[in-house]
Amino acid sequence: MTLRRWSWFSASPAKAGVQSQCPATGPQPSPGTLLAAIVSAIGGMVILTAAVSDARGVNDAAIIAEGYPATLSEFRLFADTANRTPAARVMPYTLNTPLFSDYAEKQRYIYIPGGKTAAYDPDKVIDLPVGSALIKTFGYQQSGRFKALETRLLLHRANGWVALPYVWNDAGTDAVLKRAGTRIPVTFTDPSGVARTISYSVPNQNQCKDCHALSGVITPIGPKVRNLNDGKQLQALLAAKMLDRLPADAPRLARWDDPAAPLADRARAYLETNCAHCHNPNGAASNSGLYLDWHRADLNARGILKHPVAAGRGSGSGEFDIDPGHPERSILIFRMESTDPGIAMPELGRATVHAEGVALLTRWIAAMPPGDAPTSMGVKATRN
User: Fold this and answer.
1) How far, in Å, CA of 346 to CA of 144, rounded?
2) Are 273 and 360 in contact (CB under 8 A)?
3) What is the 3-state secondary structure (H, E, C) of 166-179?
4) Can you give the chain as a three-state secondary structure string?
5) Which residues have C-beta within 8 Å of that of residue 310, sequence separation ≥ 6?
6) pLDDT at position 310
7) Helix, strand, coil proportions of the chain in percent (round to 5)?
């Protein structure tokens, strides 16, 4: 038995949670009469065609039970697995500033069980109830179509979050669990038009923990209020009764690639998303003393005129993590420009240099006033 369900997506194809559509039966819905409350709240969102859904919906038992289903389809997060058509209450979302992952495209979804809501938190990831799931599919454009390589799940069980990687089969009909990770050869064209071939890395389950550990506990990273806040998504979650509240002063993280935003805001957003999950007082890189979370007020802790805790190959010939006015002398840039496993930062999740990200941070550092602890920046450290 099947039923029809209507889903909302971003109006921009480049940001859509799902790029495919399922054929519908019956008349098409009118945005003025269907989900009117959500449409009126989010304005820029549109209603797509109807999708044929599995009447059973999401397999809640698979999310909360012990064990690891062998295939992605067992969770029934997608009504149509091959086309990744989301099931009921599986909502697509985007991030203002996403993590760079070798230029991979990502399709993100959030699932919250019926009758439950996420709790608003202005500083952390929205507090998702037990039974929730975060779904992220990675892939590349191949012959004009999105080809999925892997889907990573974060499942909220009674004893905490569990991370599982699933790799798609060649036919693209389902994905199988790969707890040990794997590598996939991939050829793609980057935004500058350069053809690249890489050995794409699917992380093993322990590597998932490396990035997602906060005080030693697996924790989601991406769906923080400030990174979801684009003027539409949070409003849609609230209207769908999947978020408990939304204050008018909800923080918003800048888009790293928005030329209209202040340069410093864009740079800080990039560091927040790409580095701060480890570089914070409770993260895997807490012993570095380099904290790159967006609200950090201590400029020295943010790397400005900060000596690295440990010298070695990772520091190159640089003296400071960030040397104001001198990106060419800044350890931060040196490590971002490297693909050497003993030097590169971030350590996981990339085999290529993010040229556009490096260019952004180079401009930001170059624009800082150089000199010995400029008082305008409030930095107390001085050059040796």
Assistant:
1) 30
2) no
3) EEECCCCCCEEECC
4) CEEEECCEEECCHHHCCCCCCCCCCCCCCCCCCCCHHHHHHHCCEEECCCEEEECCCCCHHHHHCCCCCCEHHHHCCEEECCCCEECCCEEEECCCCCCCCCCCEEEEEEECCCCCCEECCCCCECECCCCCEEEEEEEEEECCEEEEEEEEEEEEECCEEEEEEEEECCCCCCEEECCCCEEEEEEEECCCCCEEEEEEEECCHHHHHHHHEECCEECCCCCEHHHHCCCCHHHHHHHCCCECCCCCCCCCCCCCCCCCCCHHHHHHHHHHHHCCCCCCCCCCCHHHCCCCCCCCCCCCCCCECCCCCCCCHHHCCCCECECCCCHHHEHHHHHHCCCCCCCCCCCCCCCCCCHHHHHHHHHHHHCCCCCCCCHHHCCCCCCC
5) none
6) 73
7) 20, 25, 55
- Tell me the β-bridge partners of 90: 111
pTM for this structure?
A: 0.81
Return d(Cα 174, Cα 270) in angstroms, integer: 33
- For 190-239, write each residue's pLDDT tens digit: 999 999 999 999 988 776 666 666 656 778 888 999 999 999 999 999 99
State the pLDDT confidence band at 24, using cuts at 50, 70 and 90.
Answer: very low
| Tokens (6 digits) for 224 | 């923080």
| Token pair of 194 as six digits | 């350069």
Token reading at 363 = 């401009």
Q: Please report where in the chains the tokens 């985007």 appear, as a residue.
A: 94
- Supply 371's token pair: 């000199």
CA 58 – CA 55 distance, rounded (Å) = 9
The pLDDT, as a whole number, for residue 312 is 75
